[in-house]
Amino acid sequence: MTTKHTVTHHSSGLTPGKYIVPFILITTLFFMWGFARSILDVLNKHFQESMDISVVRSTMIQATTYVAYALMALPAGIFITRYGYRRGVVLGLLLFAAGAFGFIPGDIAGSFGIFLASLFVIGCGLAVLETAANPYAAELGEPSKAASRLNLAQSFNGLGCILGPVLVGGFLFSGDGGSSVALPYAIMGCVVLLVAFLFSRVNLPEIGNDAGTGDDNPRHSLTGNISVLWRSRRFRYGVMALFCYEIAEIAINSLFINYVTDDGWMDKVTATWVLSFGALGLFLLARIAGSAVMNYVKAEKVLLFCAIMTVAGASLVALNLGALSKTGLFMCYAFEAIMFPTIFAITISGCASATKIASSFLMMTPLGGAVGTFLMGWVAATTDISVSFIVPAMAYAAVLIYAISAMCGKLKN
Fold first, then answer.
1. 206 phi and psi angles, rounded to 5 deg
2. Where are the alpha helices (DSSP H) in 84-217?
3. Where are the alpha helices (DSSP H) in 207-276?
4. How many helices and strands in the chain, by DSSP H and E?
5. Percent of the chain having pLDDT more than 90?
6. Rounded Cα gap, residues 62 and 123, in angstroms
7. Which of 22, 54, 238, 398 is most exposed by smallest CB count within 10 Å?
8. What is the pTM of this model?
């Protein structure tokens, strides 16, 4: 039987030196799912044209992927609680690879349904990876620096988001538009299998406050932990805030190319570059900056300021004020960057033995992306693309209410 090593928190640094290697390894996963999720935003426009489908129907891409998150997150938490982080990561990677290879028969058959089924499997894999990696990165060090540490790890998610649209979008939108969507996914599947093999050969230390909880009457532990979690105001409000954040973030990404090409501001190829190096590059830099700032300023204060700015940015876009609205679009990317890791870290703080199950519920929240993308697509189809930004504006407003509650000390239990 393999001996489990537990993580203890005695270092004043962001991450204790002896846990630098596990932190680096787990951070590679943030890059991978950032890359995979960002490609979805390119697929919307690609399938609209290559398969002649509507904007509303193309949002099934996000819906399918994020419904998979909602369905898989709790089983993922149960699996990780029982078998540990390393096996959870390997399972997630194998599902990710299987879904990526599913694009090959989808491309041969020219079937949107097969593509959606493949994206569902990928979504299941990403749900397992995120359920494992987010709490693991947050807990690898002093609890007081969890938000800063998770923001740093999530910065690599931002790097993946930058490279995904420009590499895959540049490939799909080049030439006469006949590029095969199966090729980039096949390459991705091979890379993911290699990473799965590497993780199958390494040992990841288990988080101290979770160690062993999966072996002692897991059935009782599961029901008990869920009951404790949902009695906590901090946890309930955190789940709702993260759901609303996902509505805004994923919906804006999904329709970014539609927005900037709608009035001839950019062509498709330029739009993919601007999405990658402009919007998502700004997102990455803001997340790194946020990680640094939170070493000196309380995470709740940073979250409050950023929530105010995102509400302002999305509202400017919805008002259709020309250049001012375009500025508002990039404000959303800059100030939403710290929201996911910050809300996540605040929510799981103090969860102790329920951390993995708490993470699984939090990783159901990307379903909000499916809801937000559909709502934005519907509003855009019935009015115009600018007005549709009222959807993320309202979602950011919900995060603002959460941030105010956190600052006022209403999330103590």
1. -75, 150
2. 85-101, 103-109, 112-139, 146-164, 170-172, 182-200
3. 218-231, 233-262, 268-273
4. 19, 2
5. 41
6. 10
7. 54
8. 0.78
Q: Exposed, middle or buried: residue 102 (CB in 10 Å: 0-12, 13-18, 19+)?
A: buried
The residue among 259, 260, 306 whose CA lies nearest residue 283 is: 306
Q: Which two tokens stand for residue 413?
A: 């239990």
pLDDT digit string, tens, across residues 171-214:
877 655 456 888 889 999 999 999 999 888 887 777 654 444 44
Beta carbons within 8 Å of 111's beta carbon, 6+ residues apart = none
Longest Cα pair distance anywhere in the chain, in angstroms? Answer: 64
Question: In the chain, what are the helix, strand and coil shares in percent, each to the nearest 5?
Answer: 80, 0, 20
Specify the amino acid at residue 213.
T
In angstroms, the CA 29 to CA 24 distance is: 9
Q: Which amino acid is at 334?
A: A
DSSP state of 321: -
| Residues 284/276, Cβ–Cβ less than 8 Å | no
Q: 13 pLDDT band (50/70/90 cuts)? A: low
DSSP string, 40-81: HHHHHHHHHHHTT--HHHHTHHHHHHHHHHHHHHHHHHHHHH
Which residue type, as a one-letter code, is found at position 190?
A: C
Question: Distance between CA atoms of 243 and 364, rounded to whole angstroms?
Answer: 8
**What pLDDT, in 10s, does the model give residues 59-70?**
788 889 888 988
